[in-house]
Write a structure and sequence with these properties.
The complex is a heterodimer. By secondary structure, chain A is of the alpha+beta class. In chain A, 44% of the residues lie in helices and 11% in strands. Chain B is built from 22 helices and 19 strands. A five-stranded mixed beta sheet of chain B has the order 12-11-15-13-14, with helices on both faces. A four-stranded mixed beta sheet of chain B has the order 2-1-3-4, with helices on one face. A four-stranded parallel beta sheet of chain B has the order 9-8-7-10, with helices on both faces. The chains are: A alpha+beta, B alpha/beta. The A-B interface holds A 27-32, 34-35, 58, 65-66, 69-73, 87-90, 92-94, 125-134, 136, 143, 145 and B 13-15, 18-19, 52-55, 198-203, 206-207, 238-240, 276-282, 293-299, 355, 357-359, 363-364, 395, 398, 429, 431-433, 437, 442, 445-446, 449, 452, 455.
């Protein structure tokens, strides 16, 4: 489990209770409930998982099992500007790997890591369905198409001055 | 209702949307308002036109003008020239690459000529957020026919006679599957739409859901009626927010129109649809794994039988079909089984949607009759290989499929033929590769994917694929030995024969098929330690050609690890032990004195 201890406030518990209730606290709806929880908190640390488990009437072990099984769920917070490099096949054959290497080099981050100031994180995703624009990079909801290693610094520059 | 004289259809597919389409529709509307034409001309955001390479696309109706690579800045020009003065905007028209002529009507473009659009019939035609537009194109007519005229058994017979086979990859006859689910008596049954498109490089299901969500709703309702289910579930990737939004919107509209809910069309039949979100697990494309995931569990497959038709969701009879299969259903019911069966081949009827991508000129979403050859798809519709390079291979079937080469180009594409030549249909990803792609690396790429996506339940898949990956990695690092090739083949065969589900059973296909078709490339990697495609970094060396080097020192100055030595105006030399193969020296040299060997 994640090493950082997360402090849980009453309002967090209330929020999870509200989500769980909207799914009738039904164990079958665990995955939908986890989606809603992650949408709210940004990630699913162990402490949050425990509350979800209680509210959805399943064991913490089961929640942990589900969270770690699916790649969409994450136990570490993403950066404020999460950078996702599409590594679907179409992007791969058009050079996504070199683009990924360039992001890793410039930000000094590995895949799955978040920068210390919490600004950037790097992740790979599989096919966003914009293969005509391959290789594709997403920063948050913004999509960048036909990215070359040379273009990486321009993308990062867009966010340098942002908080 | 306001009658519009002209429509501007703006592609709202992911590719076009990403290249500034959101602003494009807005810009067109603003330009219309400035000219006071907002009541006469309507801007409609549609689903994917398929021609993603040249997006964003705008199509003008009624004259069918097809504009490509339209940016928000072009909006005013379209309104001023085309809408007001009736003159086509020349610079936005598609140029035929061979004849160098401008083509205004998409029907005359090579990209569209050979296509027949059944599953994609409404994509790029209707506004997916308007149920009336779907209805105006025979929408929900098939449901009416099924409820009022055909009844359950005749509906299933129609699907059986049409020869429709599952479009998600397996190719199992859809009608037969429906029959099994119908024959199993139970108080509850379920209909499931598999929209967990996991093949990296396939986006047809997404495009259908985004461009024509009602077709899936209508087909699921028909399916429910035919097998006796009152609940439908769509298992959809959470990574597809636009598709989710459109589908939810469409479900609500269908409820308002009484096309979902209780007593649909006064037939006494009740049916409704819920959404379940996937969370990024390729194995959930397998139907038993998918069902477990919908039950809130880890998406691990179980042994079949029992098949879902017998014991599926909540242990009840369940029919699972994928999005594209469903998109064919209303048309089959409306046009009849015979009509559908005449399209395509004897054993693979109808059409197939392919996501054509990679090193091909016209990347996009295409729908062709079964039996079309790979050559027609890649060279006619796809417009050939990018940058005039040489075709090397085409990968079909995603991580479960194989790489085919030029000797397969004239193979008619259908379920059985692709299996015969060592690949498979899969969900319809089609990735074209050229001479710069190393087949060993491609096989490694797919294995990397399957290793990551293996659920870990059975040993052959969990451990075996990992070992396959390690051997491939060793080969691409230049450390391969001849016996590694035997190991790859033996291990691959064992994994195929002993894995529990489709993921493991097909995972070695990319390795086995590339070994089959590109044996010399594997040998070259292992014995000569060379990668002809120049993609395996450890197997290549940058080398300075003495005759060409003038000793300008540019390369030495650019080298990040200072591994290039040489005096001014003297021939330089690269220290191979220190070189990190970044390629800077080659990029910077103005005298073509750096080569890869």
């Amino acid at each position: 489990m994640s090493s950082v201890k997360v402090e849980i406030h009453q309002e967090d518990v209330d929020k999870i209770q509200e989500i769980a209730k909207s799914y009738n606290n039904d164990p079958e709806a665990l995955i939908n409930a986890l989606h809603a929880t992650q949408d709210h908190f940004g990630y699913l640390p162990a402490e949050i998982q425990e509350i979800v488990a209680e509210e959805m009437n399943v064991s913490s072990a089961k929640v942990y099992g589900v969270v770690t099984f699916y790649s969409y769920f994450t136990m570490t917070p993403k950066g404020r500007y999460p950078i996702s490099i599409c590594t679907g096949t179409a992007c791969y054959v058009r050079g996504a790997e070199t683009v990924l290497d360039e992001f890793k080099r410039q930000l000094e981050l590995e895949v799955g890591e978040t920068s210390e100031n919490g600004k950037y994180s790097i992740n790979c995703l599989r096919c966003v369905g914009a293969c005509g624009l391959a290789p594709v990079v997403m920063v948050g909801d913004k999509t960048y198409g036909r990215v070359s290693p040379d273009g990486v610094k321009d993308i990062i520059a867009e966010y340098e001055d942002a908080e | 209702m306001v009658k519009h004289k002209m429509h501007l259809l703006v592609c709202g597919g992911t590719g076009c949307y990403a290249s500034a389409n959101g602003d494009l529709a807005k810009a067109l509307n603003e330009a219309l308002e400035i000219s006071g034409l907002q009541d006469e001309v309507q801007v409609v955001t549609t689903g994917c036109f398929g021609f993603c390479e040249k997006g964003p696309i705008v199509k003008v109706l009624p004259d069918n003008t097809f504009y490509v690579e339209v940016q928000p800045d072009d909006a005013e020009k379209i309104i001023q020239e085309h809408v007001i003065k009736g003159r086509k905007v020349d610079k936005l028209l598609y140029t035929d690459p061979d004849k160098k002529e401008k083509i205004a009507d998409s029907a005359h473009m090579d990209f569209y000529k050979k296509q027949i659009r059944i599953a994609l019939r409404n994509c790029g035609v209707i506004n997916p957020e308007d149920i009336d537009e779907y209805i105006s194109r025979d929408g929900y007519q098939a449901l009416g026919k099924v409820l009022g005229e055909l009844g359950p058994q005749k509906t299933i017979d129609t699907i059986k006679d049409s020869g429709l086979r599952g479009r998600g990859g397996g190719g199992f006859p859809a009608g037969l599957k429906w029959q099994f689910a119908k024959n199993n008596e139970s108080d509850e049954k379920y209909v499931v739409c598999n929209a967990d498109e996991g093949d990296p490089g396939a986006f047809m299901d997404r495009s259908i859901l985004e461009g024509d969500p009602h077709t899936v709703i209508e087909a699921m309702t028909i399916n429910g009626y035919a097998i006796g289910a009152n609940t439908g579930l769509v298992y959809i990737r959470a990574e597809y927010p636009l598709a989710i939004r459109r589908l939810k919107f469409a479900i609500n509209q269908a409820r308002e129109y009484g096309l979902l809910g209780e007593n649909i069309m006064d037939s006494g039949f009740d049916f409704d649809i819920q959404l379940r979100y996937g969370a990024g697990a390729f194995v959930c494309g397998e139907e038993t794994a998918l069902i477990h995931s919908m039950e809130g569990e880890r998406g691990e497959p179980t042994v079949k039988p029992p098949y879902p038709a017998e014991s599926g969701f909540r242990g009840k009879p369940t029919n699972v079909n994928n999005v594209e299969s469903y998109a064919n259903i209303p048309v089959i019911i409306n046009q009849g089984a015979d009509w559908f069966a005449k399209i395509g081949n004897k054993n693979s009827t109808g059409t197939k949607v392919f996501a054509l991508a990679g090193k091909v000129n016209n990347v996009g979403l295409i729908e062709v009759p079964m039996g079309t050859t790979l050559r027609e798809v890649i060279f006619e519709i796809g417009g050939g290989i990018k940058d005039g390079k040489k075709f090397k291979a085409v990968q079909t079937g995603g991580p479960s499929g194989g790489c085919l080469t030029d000797k397969h180009l004239d193979t008619p594409i259908d379920f059985d033929n692709l299996v015969k030549v060592g690949s498979m249909m899969g969900s319809g990803g089609m990735i074209v590769m050229d001479e710069d792609d190393c087949m060993v690396s491609v096989a490694k790429f797919y294995l990397d994917f399957t290793v990551e996506e293996s659920c870990g339940k059975c040993t052959p898949c969990r451990v075996g694929n990992k070992r396959l990956y390690e051997i491939l990695d060793k080969i691409t690092q230049g450390k391969g030995e001849p016996e590694d090739l035997d190991k790859l083949r033996n291990l691959g065969t064992v994994i195929k024969e002993t894995s529990l589900c489709g993921l493991g059973q097909t995972a070695p296909n990319p390795v086995i098929s590339t070994m089959e078709n590109f044996w010399e490339e594997y040998e070259q990697h292992v014995t000569d330690k060379k990668c002809a495609a120049g993609s395996c970094k450890n197997l290549m060396q940058y080398h300075i050609i003495e005759e060409n080097c003038v000793g300008c020192t540019a390369c030495a100055r650019k080298c990040p690890v200072n591994c290039i030595s040489g005096e001014k105006k003297q021939v330089h030399k690269i220290d191979q032990d220190l070189c990190i193969k970044c390629g800077n020296c080659m990029d910077v040299c103005k005298f073509n004195a750096v080569e890869i060997i």
